[in-house]
Amino acid sequence: MKREAFKMYLKPGKEAEYEKRHNEIWDELKSLLKEAGVSDYSIYWDEETNVLYASQKVEGGSSQSLGDNPVVQKWWAYMADIMETNPDNSPVSKSLKEVFYLK
C-alpha cells in the first residue's frame, strides 16, 4: 500500500459549503474510491491560506487517477463553483512529497 498527499485550493467563503458537500458525499463516489483501492482518505483545511491538504492510502490507482470516470466528472462539476479548477473541472492540485512518516 502506498500513501499519497496533495493540496487543493478552496475559494474564499466556501469553507462551510465544502464541508457540507463532503459530509453528504455520494454513495456511488465512496464505492468507486473504495473499489479503486483508496482508503484512509482525509482532507484538512488550512484556515490561514484556504488550502486543502489531502492524504490517502492507495492500492492501485489513487483518487487523482479516476478522472475519466463519469461519477468523478459529475463530482468535479458539482464542486467547481467552490474550488479552483482546471478547464475540465478537475480541482487544481499539487502532489506533496512525503518527508517524514512515523508508523
UniProtKB/TrEMBL annotation:
UniProt entry tagged with the keyword Lipid metabolism: no
Signal peptide: none
Spans traversing the lipid bilayer: none
Recorded superkingdom: Bacteria
Gene Ontology CC terms, in alphabetical order: cytoplasm
EC number of this enzyme: 5.1.3.32
Gene Ontology annotations of biological process type: rhamnose catabolic process
Name of the protein in question: L-rhamnose mutarotase
Species for this entry: Dysgonomonas alginatilytica
